[in-house]
Amino acid sequence: MRRMMVACASACLMASQPGVAQPAPTAPPVPRFDPGAFRDASVTNPFFPLEPGAVYVYAIREGTRTSVDSITVTREKKRVGGVAVVVVHDRVRRAGKIVEDTRDWYAQDTAGTVWYLGEATTSYEGKTPNTNGSWEHGVSGARAGIIMQARPTVGGAYRQEYRKGIAEDMGRVVSVDDSVSVPAGRYSGCITTEDWSPLEPETMERKIYCRGVGVVREMTTKGGNEVVELVSMRRPQARP
Prior knowledge:
Layout: E1 6-7, H1 10-15, E2 55-62, E3 65-73, E4 78-80, E5 83-94, E6 97-108, E7 114-123, E8 135-136, E9 143-148, E10 157-159, E11 161-162, E12 170-182, E13 185-196, E14 204-210, E15 214-222, E16 226-234
Antiparallel strand pairs: 1-12, 2-3, 2-16, 3-5, 4-5, 5-6, 6-7, 7-8, 7-9, 9-11, 10-12, 12-13, 13-14, 14-15, 15-16
């Protein structure tokens, strides 16, 4: 899942200013993925909960350009790498037209760590649809990565995805007690990560994950000016 003022500890504030982001650390190893460590398709990690039927809406600002990102936790059934996954449908619209349509696949192991097992993504911003960036664990050398650790600690670095030359995002925890205000509300006790990729070494991002919600804010801290904020979140209605 995705990604007004942010109130962080002073070190976090300094590092989150454009051009002041800390250097990316040494690339962490690709984590070992054990299909036997998964029991079902539920994802209940408090900082990355995926409740089927939940809908999240984000506003994306990049200079004068604005977009809307709608994310739905589906009830679709799919297995990736021998594991049942939660399928999240992500659609970005600009001026009412879909410019990106993605299905992401997540699973949580028995320790509580949330894994990212791939995505099927299509961009419609060019003359023809583009599926670059799509990958699936176990296909063409791709390996699952970690989106949210069971027990995040400051300084902990991890790979979020891996397919050489296609998907190499990495992250590290920089705070575990931040507060943030976005259109959807004010949150405290949040986890902030700094994300980067060797495929785009000129870019760094910050993501803020809050308990019971997941990502509430993203911001490019180096190499751009994109800001993504949670506007609304709708819980699923109880099924009869």
